[in-house]
Amino acid sequence: MVAVFEFSSGAMENFRLIVYRESHMLYSDLKSTDKRKQINTIVVAHEVAHQWFGNLITMGWGTHLWLNKGFATWISYMVTNILFPEWQIWTQFLQLSADGLSLNALQQSHLIKVEVDDAHGIDQILDDISYKKGSAVIRMLQGYLGNDIVQLTQGKGSRTSNGNSSSLKEKDQEQCDETLWVKVNVEQSGFYRVIYDDELAARLRKAVVKNYLSATDKLGMYYMLVKDCPL
Ligand SMILES: [Zn+2]
Q: At the top level of its lineage, which domain of life is listed (predicted)?
């Protein structure tokens, strides 16, 4: 790994020679901020991940470029979370995921898979959709396939009769007291938005105030429930 003065990109994952802008690699306990330490950890993890995802193995053609960029981005957060669990870095991934949802809502948005005719076209499709939407979709797959992650949590430690939030029946709702709540998309691992009805939204706000939700889930509720939120 080499730090280069005024390197134009943040970093470049050449095989066996990763080049960084100085600020993205060098760190001083005395002079650098904690934020810089976090950024550099994510950047280094991203570029090292590219030695595998992109260099040793890669997609057949640029059409699936999102797999290269999305995997390196997703795994950089996973590695950072293992190295520094106290940072709760997945809460920051949520900003990236929310950006991906915003981009996805634009008329000019496109699929993460983009047909490319020749090598020159690859540069044209390399945008934030590849990184942000791509990594958020992989994060969703991790949430879906992971062993310990479930898609539903519920207040008071109890569950609906069938354990499925989307099929919470009317009868169940009538029996619920007002402190019972359901949070869909646990840990915001899914790349989708949830619309809660007013009553459930009000209960969720109370659950947030009482600190029943994790930091990631609270941030997710912020994006979903804050009125006129641009996201
Ligand atoms: Zn990359």
A: Eukaryota
Active site residue 6: no
What is the per-residue pLDDT across 103-144, written as a single tens digit (0 to 9) for each? 888 888 888 888 888 877 777 777 888 889 999 999 988 888
Q: Which of 164, 216, 162, 170 is nearest to 197 (CA)?
A: 170
pTM, two decimal places: 0.76
Mean pLDDT of the 75-87 span: 94
With 0-12 CB in 10 A as exposed, 13-18 as middle and 19+ as buried, what is 167?
A: exposed
Distance (Å) from CA 224 to ligand 1 centroid: 29
Angle at which helix 65-83 crosses helix 34-52, to 10 degrees, equals: 130
Annotated catalytic residue within 47, 115, 170, 178? 47
Tell me how far the alpha carbon of residue 200 lies from the centroid of ligand 1, in angstroms.
Answer: 40
CA 8 / ligand 1 centre spacing (Å): 14
- Confidence (pLDDT) at 151: 39
